[in-house]
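> Could you send the SmpA/OmlA family protein prediction when you get a chance?

Sure thing. Input:
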Amino acid sequence: MNTLRCYCAIFTLLLCGAPHADNIIIPIASQGTENEQLPVRAMSNTDVLRLYGKPNSQSPATGTPPITRWDYDTFTVVFEYDHVVHSVRKFHATNTPSHTTVQ
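Output:
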């Protein structure tokens, strides 16, 4: 009797349909060009200005120690006082679909 119940349960599960999953498409992206050299840690803001030119925008110094951010077309530089603490390439989508397909 228990075997019959087990077979009935398996049969019922098989009739419920195939498993279903969603397909989510995420665009391929890059962060700048890898050949582009970014300002390195401890570089002075004078050297950054000399090597990379005037930034598109500059944030005012905030906090203690003062932190400043310079934004360029393809990267951002963060300064503590007058020296680089971090440089980051900006995200640029390289293959953005006009719509997302979910199945």
